[in-house]
Design goal:
5-stranded mixed β-sheet, 21 helices, about 70% helix, 4 domains, disordered N terminus, mainly alpha
Length: about 475
Amino acid sequence: MAHPPQSTQRSALIRLITVLAGVMLTLIGALFGAAPTLAQETAWREQRTTYFVILFTAGNEADAETYAGFVDSIYDEMAVVFNHRAAAPITLRLYPTQEAYEQVNPLARDIPGIVAHADFRRREVVVILPRTINQTPVEVENNIRHELTHIIAAEITVNQLNVGFQEGIAQYIEHPSPNLERTIAMLRAARDQGSLMTWSELDDREKIYGEPQIGYPQSLSIVAFLVERYGFEKFREFLAVSASSSGYRSALQQTYAVASTDLEQQWNAWLPDYIAGGYNLNALRSYDFSHARQLLEQGQYEAATAELEQALEWLANNATANGPEVLAEAEALLEYSREGSRAERMARAARTALEHTEYERAQQLVAQARAVYTALGDTRRNDVMDTYDEHAVRGMSAMQTLDQAAVLVQRFQIPQARAQVDVAAAEFAALGDETRLNRALVLRRELDTRQQFVGVTLIALGLVGAVSSLGLRWSRRKEAEFWV
């Protein structure tokens, strides 16, 4: 197979070395505390956007305005892609000359081709303006995408993500540009020459940056493989897991339930198709709804609604890149999730009504929530809705029983009234309705008092009747004694 021309390889290599230089300079600056002499000697001007503080020097106002026109949209794009908003504001420093950059980063004098780098500790992205003159508008924007991805990945993983995956995901996020073809050409050459690295070498910073013509294309292909085979949501999960894992192997095992050695074998088998043209496929070019769908399948409607609202805003601003069908899919999913959220709110309101012993309102809310869940085809809440409904019905029945007892009292049917009160009191106690339970107990004490009074009265009346009967008999007996 023919190898790519030397000039093409050299051009791509220079770009790859760019990121290496940025990382090296950032690391050395952090270790040795390199003083920002230019920041002290040069008066930086400032332009703010929603998420960025753009620092520039006199004469570069137009450049600052250009970057201000797109950096916030890239921030929103990254927030949707990673479901993570990097701590803001982020500093974007635009160096006017190579010399100005080297004043602050003297080690850069020996490293050609630096265009941009990121310092995640300072949340700063640096761009050397003269180095971007020959770049296409997409490549200029990709500089920001690439470096912002480094900051986001470092935040999500607490800076535990190794260099191979850092560079792989930063490249995968970039939009298609002529550089992608050059990168794939180098990957093809490395595979044909048998010089591809092992995955264990992804941990070796010196190896990746020492052979960028292999390390960068290969790291891109590995991330592309994981995303294509398992979905981008799984890769986001891998980033989150990496924050608390001992290394990339354990993070891969925990996320994908497959040993890293097996994943490496799968990647090797997959690679030829990728090089042959599969690299043109990118999950992010057609928006990945897998996470939102997973949330909906789990019934996490409100979380899905929040994600889809954010995604829809971004998709609306990037309709050309994604197509109307993607936007329509997002709108349909959002409508579904909002209906689910409405049902969730009604279910919670029903529970609150039960807690406040508002049984009739609870029953109405249950019926409304159940109707929405049924329309969504979601049967997972059926048991909960049945429980709420049963609770409400029992409460309403107990209230009716207590009302019937009051009617019986008015009819002086005290024993029957007391029996009804006992039934109502038992239900209120079981339902935890202390207010109505106390009301029933008060009524029962009143009934007991009445019943005792009636009993005493009946006894008294009985005694009076008995005495009267004896008196009458004695009177009649006396009259008989006077008969002659």
